[in-house]
Amino acid sequence: MEALAQHILTICYLIGSITFILGLKMLSNPASARKGNLVAAAGMAIAIFGTIFLYKDDSGAKLHNYPWIFGGLIIGTIVGTLAAKKVKMTAMPEMVSLFNGMGGACAMLISVIEFNHASHSLSEFPAEQSGLLLTIFLGVIIGSVSFAGSIIAWGKLNGKIKDFAFLGQQIANMVLMVCTLILAGYLTFNLTASNYHLFYLVLALSLVYGILFVFPIGGADMPVVISLLNSFTGVAAACGGFLYNNKVMLTGGILVGAAGTLLTILMCKAMNRSLKNVLIGSFGGAKKTAGGGSKEQGSYKEISISDAATVMAYANRVMIVPGYGLAVAQAQHTCHELEKLLEEKGVEVKYAIHPVAGRMPGHMNVLLAEADVSYEKLLEMEDANDVFKSTDVVLILGANDVVNPAAKNDPSSPIYGMPILEVEQAKTVIVNKRSMKPGYAGIENDLFFQPKTSMLFGDAKAALQQLVTEIKSM
Prior knowledge:
- Helices cover 59% and strands 7% of the residues.
- It is of the alpha/beta class.
- The chain folds into three domains: 1-86, no CATH class; 89-287, no CATH class; 305-472, 3-Layer(aba) Sandwich (Rossmann fold).
- A six-stranded parallel β-sheet has the order 3-2-1-4-5-6.
- α14 links the parallel β2 and β3 (378-380).
- It is globular.
């Protein structure tokens, strides 16, 4: 009977692993993303309940303390459900950072608990178990960095924590990281009853590094950091899978770690940053005030709602560039209404999506999917740039840094070299913003002062509603 239970548990883990892979694959397409989430969640539920009721240790003992286990599950489910239902789309990056931080904390605590178990027998701790200690130290270091970094990122995204940097911080970060790794490496092969307490110094140093790693980073670089921290959490969870010899935990951690790493590389490419610079925290907030945006600009011109509606209604092709301002105004549904109205008048409407628009990877895709915008209408940056040349009107809704020509022609700009949406190639550019204030990177946008560009000031939702009303009356 016990053998049968273990076989069933193995099958549960296999099902969980397969559903994780299938769910991740479905997330690649907005049409199947929701189903992919449900499939992966179902697999996770099977793995969790399989572990609770079927797992036995080497001595044959089953899990106990069921009230604590189910109490934690119930509380976590209620809190997670309420948080997900109440969160605004603009706060989604913050929630992702917070939840990712909780994942890193869990992985860190697993390593701490397993170290405490191992340290009880330090007097007879065999050298051949250094592999176990290595896994524990990797879990605690990576998990701590992910937890501390994600909490700082959460605070920066919601405005509670400001960018902070000091002279020589890059070097200090590198020294701190190297010292932490050296200490962990030494303890891995020389752990004794007299020095085991240094494990907690490794834990503390890792938490400090996680804080200092994210503190100076800001502006348009935050999506890269979120993606990188997400990959850290996955790797830390995989370490927990090694510790418990748990196949489904290992599979899930590897998938998250690999996917997060690949996404980080893609984000770095989209922003023309190197991964090395991300790791040492050498870009972001500290660069905002350097160069770019300090030169004298010409005057800008405004456009009325009536004129903007007329230009778009009689165009052959309109490209919409969504940005964080669209998310703040919760105007995605009104934007979709404008799109359908223009198409009824024979206008071809597409959306140009920059990889790092918004505050996290895929922010604009999620925003527009919520409004049922067809995925086929979303053009990635390379494809969109090919279409701008034959576009009559570009409507920019709250985007700033991702359309700033300074990234191409101003070497003094902190975003110089970052690939952008080349909207200036269109015949007419209409920019909807609340004011002329700089974007998230803190620099002025040269696009706003070009002859082709007209400014349409105001809240994105209110402006779109007025455009819809005006076009309907034509």
